[in-house]
TrEMBL record:
The name this protein goes by in its record: GPC5 protein
Source organism: Mohoua ochrocephala
GO cellular component: cell surface; extracellular region; plasma membrane; side of membrane
UniProt record, GO biological process: cell migration; positive regulation of canonical Wnt signaling pathway; regulation of protein localization to membrane
Membrane topology: Lipid-anchor; GPI-anchor
Entry function: Cell surface proteoglycan.
Coiled-coil parts of chain: none
Amino acid sequence: DLQICQHRAPTCCTKKMEESYQAAVRRERTQSIQALNFELKYMIVGHITAFQEAFESLLRFAENRTSSLFETAYRPMAKEAAEPVKELFTDISLYILGAETTVESAVLRFFDNLFPLVYSRLINPGITDLSEDYTECLRLTRQDINPFGHYSKNMVTELTKSLWASRMLNQALSLGIEVINTTEHAALTKECSRALVKMQYCPHCQGLTLIRPCVGYCLNVMRGCLASVSELDAQWREFISTLEYLTNEMAASHDLEITLSGIWNSINEAILHAQLNGPQLSATVDKVCGQPKQQEGNLSSANIVPVKEVTETQTFVMAHTSLSKKRREFINYMKRSRTFYASIAERLCDGDLVMRDSSTCWNGEDVV
């Protein structure tokens, strides 16, 4: 009553043993593919972790640098500016990690919240009554009167260019893990598990426990079993090319690290621009929002404090170097895995499964 290991000679197998063999080959095949995938998955997961850690380090550095700008140059508004600064960097972090948001909305919201502070603490420091309605009017007016000139738009452009590739790379790496996990658990067809039993266990039914499959026979069986997985070859190669493109984009002129470290400078330039145009802005705001209560005298000119370039700290240099180095190592490894899905059958037939250094092997029917 054997269904798979039918042979003319006497056999030591039963139908129940055949069923056990089918369960065994399914388990072994999953384990073999997992073993092949392990290094590749380990590299991708490791890079996601390293990338996110280095990115968070750069982001913290950029946020600290921006906060210190307010504390040293714009002390009258430093305390109130802390929350908008924190929000801006949180939004940037969420964008990189794939949240449904845009760089433009994050940056413009930051400048919307910044304008009431700049107007009431630097341009007109005598304002005593900053009601919610007046603050909201200033926030909405920012979009029309453009107090920060081209600096706010430039910041949107620069950040969008440099963060886009990082966001895409993060999503692409997550997709890579998903693909690998899916192929690990690809179900074997009934025909495939029967073919694997015939190749690996039917010799045992003849007492031939030391004979292993012939190389060519193993390749034919594995290619048949893994046809659906090897179909991923073209898409996987394209995926690797996309990773290469994205890492090159990140290292190009709109470098992520340089852009993040320059946020404080863009904000500083924007605030200086608003202060230098203070009289015109005040005239426009008075027409739109009305005149708030004010103390005698205007001290705005005394608050213009140009900030010189802050020297690069060791933290930033280390994070920058670390991220660049990891990026190069990772993409070089991934380029070597281009043929991963095309060669999966060959790799599974390598090693202990087949008889390489012997004159005899199992061809599915007999020892040859």
